[in-house]
């Protein structure tokens, strides 16, 4: 028998909504080994901490004896889920989907127990589909029902295109639930419509309807929008310890408690005390963030690496020292022997993703030159020669932001 405390931990912490909560609790108490569905479209190769919120809940239920069924959406990824999008997504090739899936699976199992997970690919059933299978499936729902979905409704009202293939996406995801006889499906709140379609389709086809477990959307490091790679406000699960720790230290103070609740096992009572201390200013938010960053970094890299990342942060970011190890870049690789524009140098060395990004960093005065003597200068121009005293010399270190360094030789 599960205790009330365990049930509360599963159904309340890190949970936005359960449809239906009462039915789900009944299933938990029944002793049945539940089939927990988590589907993903490998449209991108990486997992960030926003995904980890749901994965941690799967792991909790695995430890109670329940079975995770991970569905690789190799068909739906080629359509593109329109969730939250203002335009039709481009289709991916099968090769792109497969490469992304391999990376995703590796990262998925940093949180979820691989030994208690069954991985299934949609192509196992959709690969046999013909038009004769698709037509009856589409007849079960109306266009009006699908236009109730927020992103479809908005685009329809604004006369933006909605591809017929996108209308198929919720149907295909719903059919996955039928094929594996899902008891519970997990997804973010932006996936509610898709999960409910699966619940309805199961009922139409004579199955017991799945429960819909909706996870809260993790706010990114900017403290405003949901964590996303495209918004560059994410923390990837495979980022090096120093980068992971440093990014977590950049979150706004008001996100300290939500991050603790969604991404750590810190006891709820302890978090309530911390929230009171932060509110009364008896605890320094910097200290709380260091504890948070240490716990999360340790979960993915081990305690020793997390402690090293904390030491590095305190020495480099707070103490403004240089890291002990700095990668090197030879200016000879640029080929022409002349001093390049700073934006070109940043892109060539990988310190910026594009010329536009490099120029933005320079205009924000986020690029420094640190001499071997310890003196530092901030660039104010795209041409190093335009900034007095900033002619680049061998041994100089280029610093971008607080955490990226490169020694020029």
Structural summary, described in words:
This protein is an alpha/beta fold. It folds into three domains: 4-215, 3-Layer(aba) Sandwich (Rossmann fold); 241-318, Tyrosyl-Transfer RNA Synthetase (Orthogonal Bundle), CATH 1.10.240.10; 328-408, Structural Genomics Hypothetical 15.5 Kd Protein In mrcA-pckA Intergenic Region, Chain A. It has helices at 4-12, 21-30, 49-62, 76-79, 94-108, 123-126, 131-138, 143-146, 150-157, 164-180, 192-204, 241-248, 256-263, 268-279, 285-301, 303-318, 342-348, 355-363, and strands spanning 17-19, 35-40, 67-72, 117-121, 184-188, 211-215, 328-329, 367-370, 376-378, 397-400, 404-408. The strands form two sheets. Strands 1-6-5-2-3-4 form a six-stranded mixed β-sheet, with helices on both faces. α12 packs across α16 (303-318). The longest helix has 17 residues, at 164-180. The protein starts with a helix and ends with a strand.
């Amino acid at each position: 028998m599960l205790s009330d405390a365990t049930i509360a931990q599963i159904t309340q912490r890190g949970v936005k909504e359960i449809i239906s909560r009462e039915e789900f609790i009944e299933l938990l108490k029944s002793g049945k080994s539940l089939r927990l569905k988590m589907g993903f479209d490998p449209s991108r190769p990486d997992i960030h901490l926003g995904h980890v919120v749901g994965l941690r809940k799967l792991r909790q239920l695995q430890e109670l004896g329940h079975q995770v069924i991970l569905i690789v959406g190799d068909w739906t990824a080629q359509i593109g889920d329109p969730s939250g999008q203002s335009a039709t997504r481009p289709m991916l090739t099968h090769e792109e989907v497969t490469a992304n899936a391999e990376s995703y699976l590796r990262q998925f199992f940093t949180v979820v127990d691989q030994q208690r997970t069954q991985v299934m690919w949609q192509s196992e059933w959709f690969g046999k589909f013909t038009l004769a299978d698709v037509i009856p499936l589409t007849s079960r729902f109306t266009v009006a029902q699908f236009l109730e979905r927020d992103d479809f409704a908005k685009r329809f009202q604004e006369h933006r295109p909605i591809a017929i293939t996108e209308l198929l996406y919720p149907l295909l995801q719903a059919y996955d639930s039928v094929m594996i006889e899902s008891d519970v499906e997990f997804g973010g709140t932006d996936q509610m419509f898709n999960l409910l379609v699966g619940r309805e389709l199961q009922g139409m086809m004579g199955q017991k309807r799945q429960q819909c477990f909706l996870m809260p959307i993790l706010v990114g490091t900017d403290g405003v929008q949901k964590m996303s790679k495209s918004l560059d406000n994410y923390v990837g699960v495979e980022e090096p310890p120093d980068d992971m720790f440093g990014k977590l230290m950049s979150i706004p103070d008001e996100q300290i408690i939500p991050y603790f609740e969604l991404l750590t096992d810190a006891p709820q009572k302890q978090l309530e005390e911390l929230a009171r201390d932060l509110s009364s200013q008896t605890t320094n938010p910097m200290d709380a963030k260091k504890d948070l960053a240490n716990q999360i970094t340790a979960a993915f890299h081990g305690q020793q690496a997390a402690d090293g990342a904390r030491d590095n942060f305190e020495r480099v970011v707070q103490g403004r020292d240089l890291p002990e190890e700095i990668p090197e870049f030879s200016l000879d690789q640029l080929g022409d022997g002349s001093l390049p524009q700073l934006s070109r140098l940043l892109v060539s060395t990988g310190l910026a993703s594009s010329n536009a990004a490099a120029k933005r960093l320079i205009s924000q005065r986020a690029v420094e030159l640190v001499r071997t003597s310890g003196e530092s200068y901030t660039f104010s121009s795209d041409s190093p020669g335009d900034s007095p005293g900033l002619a680049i010399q061998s041994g100089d270190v280029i610093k971008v932001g607080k955490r990226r360094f490169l020694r020029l030789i």
